[in-house]
Amino acid sequence: MSVDILASAKTKAVLLDAREEKEFKVSHLKNALFVGYDSFKLKETLKKLPKDKDATIVVYCSLGIRSEIIAHKLIKEGYTSVYNLYGGIFEWKNNDFKVMDTLGNTTEKIHAFNKYWSKWLTKGEKVYE
Hints:
Helix content is about 30%, strand content about 20%. By secondary structure, the chain is α/β, with parallel strands linked by helices. A four-stranded parallel β-sheet has the order 2-1-3-4, covered by helices on one side. It has a two-stranded antiparallel ribbon with strand order 5-6. Helix 2 (about 20-25) links the parallel strand 1 (about 15) and strand 2 (about 35).
């Protein structure tokens, strides 16, 4: 799913953040649920999801690699409308959409994962720890 489609007022989706907790704490999409990647626990995540397996679920990470793997796990569990956010939170921020800190305030900070992958983040303030 593109960031533009997700940002449109018409898109109602459960947002799952498939980054690590330190990344999520720096910033995340509004109302996103932390599910992690290395720490991902399928059974715990399923408890957070709607019972309706046709509900729209969008999984994101920094660029879309980790979130694609988590999305496939949800599809295997029978969810039918699971999407990977194209370009992840980096693409979201690069398109000037807001991200939130742990207090629910907007922030310019984005955890850039590492120096190599951070080249794809062109806007915002890069944070590495």
